[in-house]
What we know:
Layout: E1 4-11, E2 20-21, E3 24-28, E4 32-33, H1 37-40, E5 55-59, H2 60-70, E6 83-86, E7 97-100, E8 103-110, H3 116-121, E9 135-141, E10 143-146, E11 150-153
Parallel strand pairs: 5-6
Antiparallel strand pairs: 1-2, 1-6, 1-11, 3-4, 3-10, 5-9, 7-8, 7-11, 8-9
Amino acid sequence: MRSGRVDALHLAPRSFLPMKAAGELLLVAGKGVEGDRYATGEGFYSDRPEEGRQVTLFEAETLEALLRDHKVTLGTADHRRNITTRNVPLNHLVGRRFRIGGAVLEGTRLSTPCRHIEQITGQEIFTLLLNRSGLHARILEGGRVRLGDAIIPE
């Protein structure tokens, strides 16, 4: 399994608010991304807590494929995930531990798209994101994650 890198970082303090770009995120073990809507209980799905959804990841290559194959422009803030990755297939991280910057994560399951993203983006992209909507992960060891950090499977 090859290593990848962090291309973009985002968080939002509440549901429906735009995702804010960040140069670094603090991942808190067992809780989530400091200041993010799911760590504070203010997310769209906070009424359905899931231990394995403490941080979310999305492949930059999916954004490129959406543009290339479907002429859909989706930015790194638009997919609503915390960490945008490059050069690492997230599907291969399900059930595996991996390190990003100072944090150790465990991929718990692939993300599924929701209609909420269509409400926020104003684009009909639900079907296009089936089987390519990112990864949910549990934070095993907290730490800082920065732009450009390596993503290294253990």
